[in-house]
Amino acid sequence: MGIYRAGHRTRVETERDGVDHAATVPPRLWTVEEANARLNELRALLPQLKAWATRLGVVHEELQRLASFWGKELESNDNPDFALRHRLDEEWQSLSRRLEQEVLRLHEEGIEVKDLEVGLADFYGRLEGEVVFLCWRRGEEEVGFWHPLQGGYRNRRPLPNSRKAAPRPRGSA
User: 10: number of CA atoms within 13 Å, CB side?
Assistant: First the structure.
């Protein structure tokens, strides 16, 4: 599992091992009702995960700054920033571990965290006999969209019998 920042978006992504994950059996399949019942937990958890990922970015930048300033001297016990570097390393490890544990816990339940910045999560579900992602974004009252496993947010469509309509892109009439 890897964590990285792309532009201003913080993403959490599972490293791929060459296996066609779309062909694997998901840990569980969610109904729309079951997914909706988990949204309160996600509404509380995703901002915490985002805060941890944001802090990881700050810690990473500080470690890079120290390394570029001191070079190999940073490892010296008598370096004035030696203790700071070790504190930042420990914070990095702790935050990384907590973030990865939470994302892995959700993954093992069949929930994929796609984008922490916008609060995007997918639940494995079944629609018309096909395994798909039931798609939810922070700010939406309920799960009202789906997309194929190989598709992403741009491919999401309203669920049949959903009260949702596809949101218009910003700036469109």
Answer: 18
- pTM (whole model) above 0.85: no
- Output the CA angle 160-123-159, nearest 5 degrees: 10
Q: Is 73 left (phi over 0), alpha (psi -120 to 50) or beta?
A: alpha
Going by C-alpha positions, the residue among 140, 144, 142 that lies closest to residue 156 is: 144
Each domain of the chain, given as residue ranges in start order, spans: 28-158
Residue 30 has pLDDT above 80, yes or no: yes
Residue whose pair of structure tokens reads 């194929």 in the numeric block: 148
Half-sphere exposure for 29 (CA within 13 Å, toward CB): 10
Full strand arrangement of the beta sheet holding 157-158: 111-115, 120-127, 130-137, 145-148, 157-158
